[in-house]
Amino acid sequence: MQSGRVESARREQIDVCVVERNSAKTLDRCLSSIRTYVPCHNLIVFDGYSSDESLSIAKKYADRVYVDAGFLGAVRYRAAETATTKWVAFVDSDVYVYEGWWPNMREVLQDRKVGWVTALSDFPCLIPLYRKYWEYICRTYGGTAFSNTIVRRDLLLSCTELLHVHAGEDWVAKKHILDLGIETPTLKKVLSYHDKDHFKGHFSGYYRWGRSYRLRYGAGKALALGYLSFARYPFVEWIRYSRKERFSITLLFILGLLGLCGLFGILSGRSWSIEPNPNKS
Questions:
Q1: Which of 69, 80, 89, 93 has its CA 20 to 30 A from that of 118?
Q2: CA 239 – CA 253 distance, rounded (Å)
């Protein structure tokens, strides 16, 4: 009887991976929320050679801490290699999970057709209309980011393309799982708080996306692939949604600026620079 209870407790546990760099402002609260609300088998932190107090904060909470400043996709892959549980949770260093995060996510994991599950997050946003647009996109199409996601470890390790991707690694992984015919649902519940202004963050995100596309495909193919997807997804959908809600035409201009950030990233002549190990002489 005792051994049965121990085995049941083990099945309840999950390895949680947090990838961060210079996240001291949010990392303590992030890791504290995970320790409080998630039954961690191992809490694993990958630090990208932080210059602030992130590393010392990580060591206070984590079972294992690694220092790795490679491509983000490769770091995610190595985090999955390090994990030992069937399912692996990825939580961003500026995300605080709520009490209901694990019970709601765990319920979906019982479905054998599921290989990835994420949930909605609350977040601050400088532009209220942009916030409303983003909430609409997430509720309509589901979330993609690794910010508060649980994925089946074997599926992630089968996606070797991650080793060559920096920005957009979340979509590469999710698309790989979908191509295998496995479901990737998004819970239509707000189960965490993402402590980042999405309006500001998407500008830098689109720039990194552009640079990552250039690295993978070269400038010409990156322009064709990147902007076909941009026209097909956020721009067209925004037009439809703005007609329905009579949103301001100025927000179309904002989306255009986001696209220009991606264009600038693609046309940037510099290759992606990997942070050197400052401990090496």
A1: 69
A2: 11
The amino acid that residue 132 corresponds to is: K
- Residue 120 backbone zone (phi > 0: left; psi -120 to 50: alpha; other: beta): beta
CA angle centred on 53, ends 51 and 59, rounded to 5° = 115
pTM over 0.70: yes
Phi, then psi, of 181 in degrees rounded to 5: 80, 25
Domains and CATH numbers, the chain: 2-125+142-196 (3.90.550.10), 200-267 (no CATH)
CA Rg value for the chain: 19
CA pair distance 244, 222, nearest whole angstrom: 32
Per-residue model confidence as pLDDT tens for the chain (281 residues): 444 433 344 457 999 999 999 999 999 999 999 999 999 999 999 999 999 999 999 999 999 999 988 888 899 999 999 999 999 999 999 999 999 999 999 999 999 999 999 999 999 887 777 787 778 778 877 888 889 999 999 999 999 988 888 777 888 899 899 999 999 999 999 999 999 877 777 666 667 667 666 766 777 766 666 655 555 555 445 445 544 554 554 565 566 667 666 666 766 755 544 455 555 54
Q: Measure the CA–CA gap between 65 and 50, rounded to whole angstroms.
A: 12
In terms of residues, how long is the chain? 281
